[in-house]
Amino acid sequence: MVSPLSFWGLVLEPNKSYSQVVESDFRISMATLAKKGNSNKPVIVQVTVEDSTFNLCTLQSGHTENQPLEIYFSEGEEISLQAVGDAAVHLTGFHYVDTALMDGTRRTSNNSLPHNIGGDDMDDEGEEDEDDEDEEGAEYDEELLAKLVNGEAMEEDDDEDDEDEAEVEVAPKAGSKRKNGEKEPSAKKVKFEIDKAAAKQEAPKEQKQKEKKQEKKEQQAAKESKKEGDNVRTLPSGLVVEDVETGNGPKAKKGSTVAVRYIGKLSNGKVFDSNVKGQPLSFTVGKGEVIKGWDMGLDGMTVGSKRKLTIPPALAYGSRGAPPEIPPNSTLHFEVKLLSVKKK
Predict the structure, then answer these.
(1) Quick one: which of 329, 336, 229, 316 has its CA closest to 275?
(2) Active-site annotation holds for 334
(3) Contact by Cβ (8 Å): 198, 127
(4) Burial class, 158, CB count within 10 angstroms (exposed 0-12 / middle 13-18 / buried 19+)
(5) Active-site hit among 262, 295, 299, 326
(6) Most CB contacts within 10 A, which of 49, 115, 249, 340?
(7) How many angstroms separate the CA atoms of 169 and 154, rounded?
(8) What is the CB neighbour count within 10 angstroms for residue 238?
């Protein structure tokens, strides 16, 4: 399961481009005009992906100074963001993370993340071996100390997770005497040893989780590479392009005006739109006149070619969909034939 984890933000200075390869999935949820200067001219926020530039929103002082957005970017995408105008723009949003990575890291109900290991309540299930024999004349409860250092549970009661954390102090047994003038170990020293031992135990678990995750990624990549042939490719954005037939006519590229026939289907096979006769659909590639998946999917296609496009929601109609024909978060499947290309 993927969930928002942390804040993301970027200040776009006027007419400066910010380019990067996305390292982890994130979402832009708000664009806000920075109130600097007295200019009332509009500022256009743009994004460039795969050599195609799109306008995300237009902001203007005194009119539209904040614009909610719902723009997702996936790991591996090459993007460039810029604000065209006389004022800066603040973009904010969230990073996303696979919450499955956090499974197995809980040590107590109050310490759920790895950086909290070694807290005061060191309950570790499955390590409850007890030694009922105490050495005669021992000055400290060595059995309890050993359990704490090894990360074992202090009690076997499953309901202890609801109790408040308490500072652990190891006191000398009543009537015990010091040997050879030795000093009593402080509670802080005991707690440090407990934290150190717990951290040693946790490190191998985290390493195993990372190794398992990497192994799953490699296996998934191997499966996908077996499924895809030379005529099928998956772009970093998640768009899948399959060349069914290759024509020998002019090539469509950004700025070209194209005419196409097509059939659009949902994942369940239902046809929601088509153009198979009459006037063909005509539009300019890369100008945002159609959904993003089409602008990217027809780029490089030659006249006479047929392609199948599998377009993820982020490159189609997203979480809003296009009711009633297209539900929210729908993956769309198109069969497209390119009839003609007019160069710009």
Answers:
(1) 336
(2) yes
(3) no
(4) exposed
(5) 262
(6) 49
(7) 12
(8) 18
Which of 54, 140, 272, 283 is flagged as catalytic? 272
Closest CA to 25 of 90, 88, 99: 99
Does the active-site annotation cover 272? yes
As a whole number of angstroms, the distance between CA 185 and CA 187 comes to: 7
All residue ranges of the chain with pLDDT < 50 are 104-140, 153-177, 226
Q: Which of 71, 295, 317, 326 is catalytic?
A: 317
Any catalytic annotation for residue 273? yes
CB atoms within 10 A of CB 53: 14
Please identify which of the residues 28, 117, 194, 291 carries the catalytic annotation.
Answer: 291
Query: How many degrees, rounded to 5, is the angle at CA 329 between CA 324 and CA 331?
Result: 95
Q: What pLDDT score was predicted for residue 50?
A: 81
Catalytic option among 86, 195, 243, 273: 273
Q: Distance between alpha carbon 339 and the CA centroid of its chain, in Å? A: 39
Q: What three-state secondary structure class fits 208?
A: helix
Query: Which 3 state secondary structure label does DSSP give 289?
Result: coil
Which tokens go with 70?
């719902």
Measured CA to CA, the distance from residue 340 to residue 81 in angstroms comes to 32
Question: Has 262 been annotated as catalytic?
Answer: yes
The whole-angstrom separation of Cα 61 and Cα 168 is 59
What's the confidence (pLDDT) of residue 209? 83
Q: Which tokens in the block code for residue 146?
A: 């050993």
- Residue 114 has a pLDDT of 40
Residues 34, 63 contacting (CB under 8 angstroms): no
- Cα gap 301→283, rounded to integer Å: 14
User: Cβ–Cβ contacts within 10 Å for residue 326, how many?
Assistant: 19
